[in-house]
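Researcher: Batch entry, complex prediction.
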Amino acid sequence: MYAQMVKSDGPSDAELSPEERAFQARIDAGEKIEPKEWMPEGYRKTLIRQIGQHAHSEIVGQLPEGNWITRAPTLERKAILLAKVQDEAGHGLYLYSAAETLGVSRDELFEKLHSGKMKYSSIFNYPTLSWADMGAIGWLVDGAAIMNQVPLQRTSYGPYARAMVRICKEESFHQRQGYSIMMKMARGTEAQREMAQDALNRFWYPSLMMFGPSDKDSVHSAQSMAWKIKMNTNDELRQKFVDETVPQAEYLGLTVPDPDLSWNEDRGHYDFTQPDWDEFFEVLRGNGPCNEERLGARVKAWDDGAWFRDGLNAYADKAAARRLAAKTAAE
Ligand code: 3HC
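Model: Structure tokens for the complex:
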């Protein structure tokens, strides 16, 4: 596959340095790359970009759901949602730690998020308007996240692959809690069923966008797949998601908001309408319904925490000075 990819998208085999060729041979043999080992600068940068953006998505992803913790309909649902949102914080932390092994600091990653130089998943720029949205997010958004992240357990960079194992286990519970909310609502009163349908209507296309632009517009896929940073193309995973999710919607008795959705016997897949890619790129440019609010919340949290970071640093400086003084006195 690599040879085929590099012909159109990167340097030919002959253009690779001996180190790069040896590195690619390790990737092709399925070896994991570990933090202190030699790697091409492009591989390191691509990983920092992808892992960093993934970490930011987990952290920003807490906001739309956090919005509903105080309004969950029962104590049990509240406890479950609280635990889920805490899981997302944990995912962010594993991923920031994995990114740090590549030589980037967490502060640098935050600065890039806050200044708009790094992205987070487009999906979190949509509002959560009703309790049914908690169901739709768990079912569709975590469902799409799992579809993308299960293959990443086999990604070539060791710390990222290992972080994904635990994350995927937790994400599958998230998906099931979302589906459980949808089951309850889709089979509840007429008003609840309408809320569930409305949530599906609003989250369907933004969930399809989570997989990234169509393959022809994906700038990084070819090289990232050659390096086994990505294991599948964006369109492959989007199709897999549609194929698995449509029967789940049918089971709920809900209608996927796509009049052209149909099973294609020859392909063995569903044919479906692509999301509005203009809308996707607008959201990426910062013009989605909640971009300002989401980024604003993260910047505020960072600014509000300045006194605490300053306190930690002052304490660390004093402790170091005390240790030095004790050592000097003992000599
Ligand atoms: N939202 C925001 N930006 C996106 C995007 C999306 N849904 N899809 C693609 N992009 C951006 C890319 O980052 C890239 O921009 P950049 O060069 O500035 O980084 C550009 O669009 C072109 O897209 P490509 O297809 O070339 O980019 P990638 O090869 O990086 O593929 C990806 C995009 C499939 C999202 C890939 O990065 C990936 O698999 N990332 C890891 C998984 C991840 O980040 N998931 C976040 C989902 S949310 C989540 O996990 C939280 C959970 O709790 C629900």
